[in-house]
Amino acid sequence: MPATTQLQFLGHAAFRLISPEGKIILIDPWFTNNPFVPEHLWQPEQADLVLITHGHDDHFDPELPGLLARTGAVCVAQAQVRFYLYEQGVPTAQFEPLNKGGAVEIQGVEITMTLAFHASHIDLPDGTAGHAHEGVGFILRFSDGAVIYAAGDTALFGDMRLLAELYQPTVALLPIGGRYTMGPREAAHAARLLRVSHVVPFHYGTYPALTGTPDELRAHLAPTDGVTVHALKAGEMLPLEKRQ
């Protein structure tokens, strides 16, 4: 088991975490025919917990019911996404229901569902869109003291300062592509509001419209901000820092 919490960037907006107890957590897994995730990572055989921020198809694998059945993982999802998965036959017992502002401890990890500002839907098998909803984010607190804020797709919002006051995150996963989410300028200010010392950017460089870059994010941060930007490659691991 790892001595500290480990973060793996799978690609685009998907992450894998390994807790100090060896529990495997997937955030917004999208594997099926995903050109941005290395193919050898497409079929995870082990997962203990799956977190879904919203139902857009670049965050929500259409084969997620099969992944949950194969691994037996507990799922925490935005409410309308959870209801859709019920309809797809995922047993209700495999979910931990949660809503914005609520918290629950699962397998040694304290999870809080937070606000996000991002309109979303689920692409249905018949080609239509349904289950309209707003996205969410998550705060994850681990037994080694690491606290991660997984923002999901979101705009910048001022109450990020409340997340800093309440949860004291050490690392923030922030979208920086722009157009559909925060861009680098907004993400830099988010890092300041959150008072984190580490940012892992995502949701950039994969589609032509997502033009924000880690270098632009760094340019909007001052040395006095004390923020390190980790531009991880798909498949790369990062040990998470705990709050001193």
From TrEMBL:
Record keywords: Hydrolase
HAMAP family given in the database record: UPF0173
SUPFAM superfamilies membership: Metallo-hydrolase/oxidoreductase
Protein name in the entry: UPF0173 metal-dependent hydrolase F0P96_05740
NCBIfam families per the UniProt record, alphabetical: PRK00685.1
Domain of life assignment: Bacteria
InterPro entries: Metallo-B-lactamas, RibonucZ/Hydroxyglut_hydro, UPF0173, UPF0173_UPF0282_UlaG_hydrolase
Cited SMART domains: Lactamase_B
Assigned protein family: Belongs to the UPF0173 family.
Keyword Nucleotidyltransferase in annotation: no
Naturally occurring in which organism (per UniProt): Hymenobacter busanensis
GO molecular function: hydrolase activity
Endpoints of the signal sequence: none
